[in-house]
Specification:
two-stranded antiparallel ribbon, Rossmann fold, 2 domains, 8% strand, single chain, alpha/beta, elongated
Length: 615
Amino acid sequence: MFGLDMIDAFIGLIFVYLTLSLIVTAFGEAIAQAQNLRGDTLKKAVSNLLGEALSKEVYDSHHIQALTTRANKKPPSYIPDRVFSTALVDCLLDGKAQESRANPAKFGTLLESALNKPATDPKLKAALSAFRESSNFNVDTFIVSVNQWFNDAADRLPGNFKRKMSKRLFLIGFLVAAALNANSINMYNQLTDNPELRNEYLTKATELAKEDKAPSLEGICEPGTTCTPSMVAKRQALAVLPLIGWNRNAPPLTRLGGAKIQHKLEYLLMGAYALVGWLLTAAALSLGAPFWFDLLQKLVKVRGSLKPLPSTAAGQPPPGGVTGDVITTGVQVTPTELENFTSFKHASLGFSKINALWLARASDLAYQEKEVVEARLREWGVTGSLHSGGQGTQFITLESPRVMVVAFRGTETGAFEDFITDAKAKLIEPGWTAVTGLEVHTGFHDALESSWSVVEQVLEGAVTADKPIWLCGHSLGGALAVLTAHRLATHGVSVSGGLKKPMLGALYTYGQPRCGNEAFVDELESTIGNRYYRSVNNRDVVPLVPPPISALPYRHTGQVAYFNEFGDFILDPPLWYRALDKLELSTDQVSAKLKETVSDHSMNGYVQLYRKLLP
């Protein structure tokens, strides 16, 4: 690779450095605040100016104590010059500064007496004596000189603070690089080897370079919220998802095989490779966002003079963004059209936010009474009804001239049968498959089995007419939709001419629990895996159950349609990002976040999230 491609790859890498450096800055600021590094730096500077004894006296004065937080009693990180000079004069004149204002001679005598004390620092004595002479023994003029003297010393504090923080920022940068696997060598290789990825990051970098100033922590967090390090990490990691993170499909360290010494050597080489990449990233991140923003603007300007840069159309997100609709037909809709089922994209088997919204609405409607269901379906311009099976199982159907939708109801509060169904977590082999070792959740299996005759009766017309059947559901309903999809795809339904496998559209679930073991997941993937979309809202706890333990080896499958803490949509994000998104480092917020494990499961919440993504 030569020329512009190398420059483009480097510009993309700078974009990553700039983005991740804000994470380092956020954690650095949090640590500096926790350790009161600025306050300690200021106190040491004051001590250098006044000497230990006088410095302690000034800090103990009521002027400075008024700036100290009662909770931690740590020295203030900022002292106004007027407060400092007033506190200093009061200490030097034994609290007689006010009465000395009208008596310059007395002021000069008291100050000279204070400066002639044996413990007075010689440099301090020389400086204040000069101020006394130049002030003509006027207290207010003297204070103005002290203000300037203090401000001159304070101007050097940022440099001192930056030097103290440099080692900390490098360490934080290394930890961030290792935690996110932000390996500079890997990232550059990906950008050079993948033209599509390179162009995506070049576009992002070009758009960012148009800004007037470097991104800041204040610009990342929502107005009125506390900008915590974890919040910054979640926001910034999202912007560089394709280039960072741990790849669960990566080959093992011992993939070359051979003698034991070869294994150890490979392990060491790969470890050294990762370490070098992380160290390079750590060094880059410690330089800070302003450095990389300035370099990015200069490099983008040079790049633009060589060849026109890619640009983003007005109102459109950059390539790879998480806010664009993913619709295979590329058809746009109006808010009015979204209120009628004719906007459903029956031919779009790829993920569609329009279809996700309609199937979410259907899954939400499945919780209503029959009269409400049928009235709402008429409003949507479709036919259908509510159907009941065994063990409290219910589902609704929506039918248009081109498609049938089946939406299963989830667990209802107060419905004892539903809780019994959920609790039967033992794995069993379903009767509709001959695959050895394929097992599913007992409760979900029994609920579907007890209702299957009703399901077959409802589906017979659509199956006979070869009308595509789309399946969806929330919570328990999502699990029933998954088992139904598997049974229809592998076994079929009974019609007048015998068993027949229907035309399946796509499968969308919301807050769905795990349904079966690895063999079940494998067969589901081989049949409808590319048409199965599993929506998960941030801390929704239901997708985490049943837990995949050795006694109950449950597994998940399907493409994850994920909503993060900020309501951003990401299709199939890696597991490490979802774990990061659930992380909460603030102890003050733990209780509220635990409550979200329940509130994030709301079906209406899923409907609202998808609705916000569309016009």
